[in-house]
Structure formats: structure tokens, C-alpha cells
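ARCHIVE CARD
Drawer: 12
Card no.: 0347
Subject: one protein chain, sequence and derived structure
Cross-reference: see card 0346
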Amino acid sequence: MKIVSIVGARPQFIKCAPVSRELRKAHEEILVHTGQHYDHGMSEVFFEELGIPKPDYNLGIGSGTHGRQTGAMLGAIEDVLQKEEPDVVLVYGDTNSTLAGALAAAKLHIPVAHVEAGLRSFDRRMPEEVNRVLTDHASDILFCPTETAARNLAVEGVTEGVFLVGDVMCDAMEYNCVIAEERSRVLEEVGVRPGEYLVVTVHRPSNTDSRENMAAIFGALGEAGRPVVFPV
């Protein structure tokens, strides 16, 4: 079977690593990187450290408004699919790359498989929520990480082609834990001890674009009584 896998953003690289490793044992995989995340620290470093195969196509789309970015990806992915003629297109998560890949495949009548199907925030103001819902309803094979995700799809009337498979992020973590324990010196570099610190990421626009929300988040972290590691 020939599978075109679409990735473009940091979370998708991590999810792709264990899936791609297994796919290539029995199938032909063509890896397409849309270029949604393109900085070395947000892209290449994950391919290097997680052992992800070099993309067969790097579309180099880059940044832009949601509409312009998704539209540019849609056209470029369509060109790849017409050239490669895959049996299935595999998309991950909830980014603009996800939606563009699903739409391009659906319009060419190529089956779409969605990893992390059925997840919902129930907040349509989030671009990711729109991407999730539309991608799920364009997909033929829906890989759900949790029972809740499968129930969300059923509520929306999606019951065919739904598979409860577990979370590939757990697979990625388990595979790389041994490597991290052997190679990582991050605790020494940032000056914290095991079990005595917090790690925080804050990236949703509903938080980062709100002075009030950010003040509340940093206030809570300040009251936590532990060093906070904040990778930004």
C-alpha cells in the first residue's frame, strides 16, 4: 500500500515518528512536510532527534493568515497527490496542514485517515477546533486516542471507520525515554532537580493574547513554590 503522510507542525513530527517507523515495515510511505513550522528548533531538530525519515517533499509554505496558509497548502498538496497517486492520505492532529491534507485528498477521492480523531474542545473560536471537526467529517478512517474521542464522533453521527487505537504520543514518549535518560542534560543546564520543578507551555491565543489571562497564569505559577521551566 502506498501512503502519503502529511505533517507540518511540531506536534505532528512527534506523532509521526512512531507511526512512520511501523508503517515502513510493510508499506510505502511518502512523507510530505508543508513547512508550516520551518525554524530549525521547531522542525529539523525533531527529525534529527526522533529519527524521522527525511521528507520526500518540503512544500515550504511558511507563515500567513489561516486562509492564505491553508489555501497555499491545499494547492501544493494536491499537486503531490496527483503525482504520487497514493492509496491513502494520512493526516495528524488539528493544524492547517491537517485540514489542507484532508481536503486535498477528499476532493481527489483518495481515502483519508486521521490520527487523533474525535478530540474536541467545544470552542469553535479556536482554529484548531474547526480543523478537527472538518477533518473528521472528511475522513474515511478515524483513529481515536480515547473512548471519549470515539463518543464525540458518535454524537456527531460518525460511526463508520472509527477505531480506538490509543495515543501515539505515549508511543513516542516510551520509545524515546531511554534515549533521553542516556543523552539529556537539560536538568543540569537549567539548574533544577528531579521532582522539584514545574514545566509549563502557554501557546493558545486565548491565553497569550490576553493580558488578564497571562497575569493569572504567571500569578498561579508564582504561588506554586517551585522553580518553573518555561520553554519559549
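Annotation on reverse: The two ends are 40 Å apart (CA to CA). The chain has ten helices and nine strands.
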